[in-house]
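hiii so um. not sure if this is the right channel but i have a protein structure encoded as tokens and i wanna go backwards to a sequence. like what aa goes where. can anyone help
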């Protein structure tokens, strides 16, 4: 198979779909790889390093989209990239379609086969291609929150961990999943007063067993969310409904009643955000203020640490890229029901139920779409 890796063009996005080690693996399997010039510069990898492991470096993304049978990216295709997609071409990347009707419309119109990292499942449960970036984003969320709490950045002027004789910041984490767990690691390590809310008692018990008395766990209700958000210095939103828009757990009215100078970090912004006042921001302009509350809502947080993120992501995605290339997308998806869960758009049809429901499309069962391909 001819596989294409374009340079990411989203604002301050320096990750790359395939690292050189992944290219070498695919070359070993007999596949040909096109890599756009300077695609790896953001992770400190040169074109020569790609060529040394078998890639053909080309000058433009247009050539990749014109020639490749499968495109492997990191972030959702931007408008100029969507315009270059071809009918039947396979796109394997993060999509986050539910809060993005324009992207969804363009992908449906393209006739391409679009497989989303974030909805691929695992035989053991969970979302294995989303997890590594959730780990990164959870850890970064605390760093970003601590930075925003500083007075020059609009915050209360608090040190997250306090000092002897002075209280630490109260950090409230909404969701005890992958994001919440990794955010807890960092917040506890920095000495914050950490409170974690979730609706799943088993998850809360596991969190308690892992962290013990270094955190407080709370069963999430509307009353509990409101009570703890009002007292918080930093709130981190890490809730997720696979493939669907994130639930708005914190309303605009609740934000109005938060402490002036408090900070919210919305890690769920890729799926629309879990704060009613959230809107996507970029690494170039990451924060804004609503009702004296600082909002950090960068939609590609792991792109801020692209080297770590690229290798972590490739560790998870490479086996699936190899399978898609070795078998062809149709057979690979028919053989593996967990990889098939990643199929969001197939030749003009929405094949992921939550996306269809959220955006008002007719849903086509992915198995039916593939069998009648």
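sure thing!! here u go:
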């Amino acid at each position: 198979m001819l596989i294409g890796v374009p340079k990411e063009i989203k604002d301050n996005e320096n990750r790359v779909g395939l690292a050189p080690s992944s290219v070498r693996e695919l070359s070993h399997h007999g596949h040909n790889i096109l890599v756009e010039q300077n695609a790896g510069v953001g992770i400190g990898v040169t074109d020569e390093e790609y060529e040394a492991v078998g890639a053909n470096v080309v000058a433009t993304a247009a050539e990749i989209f014109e020639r490749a049978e499968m495109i492997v990216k990191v972030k959702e295709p931007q408008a100029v990239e969507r315009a270059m997609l071809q009918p039947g071409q396979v796109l394997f990347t993060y999509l986050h379609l539910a809060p993005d009707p324009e992207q969804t419309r363009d992908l449906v119109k393209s006739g391409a086969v679009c497989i989303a990292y974030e909805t691929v499942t695992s035989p053991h449960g969970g979302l294995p291609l989303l997890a590594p970036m959730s780990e990164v984003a959870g850890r970064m969320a605390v760093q970003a929150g601590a930075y925003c709490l500083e007075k020059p950045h609009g915050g209360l002027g608090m040190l997250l961990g306090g000092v002897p004789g002075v209280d630490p910041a109260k950090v409230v984490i909404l969701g005890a999943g992958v994001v919440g767990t990794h955010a807890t690691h960092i917040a506890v390590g920095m000495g914050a007063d950490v409170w974690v809310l979730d609706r799943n008692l088993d998850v809360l018990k596991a969190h308690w067993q892992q962290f013990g008395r270094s955190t407080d766990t709370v069963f999430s209700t509307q009353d509990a969310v409101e009570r703890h958000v009002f007292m918080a210095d930093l709130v981190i939103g890490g809730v997720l409904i696979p493939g669907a828009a994130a639930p708005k757990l914190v309303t605009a009215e609740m934000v109005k009643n938060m402490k002036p100078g408090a900070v919210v970090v919305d890690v769920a912004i890729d799926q629309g955000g879990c704060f009613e006042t959230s809107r996507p921001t970029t690494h170039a302009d990451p924060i804004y203020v609503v009702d004296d509350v600082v909002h950090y809502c960068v939609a590609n947080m792991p792109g801020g640490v692209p080297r770590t993120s690229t290798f972590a992501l490739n560790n998870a995605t490479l086996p699936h890229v190899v399978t898609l290339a070795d078998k062809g997308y149709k057979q690979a998806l028919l053989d593996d029901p967990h990889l098939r869960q990643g199929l969001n758009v197939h030749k003009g049809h929405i094949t992921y139920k939550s996306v269809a429901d959220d955006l008002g499309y007719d849903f086509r069962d992915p198995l039916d779409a593939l069998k009648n391909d």
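oh and The longest strand covers residues 193-198.
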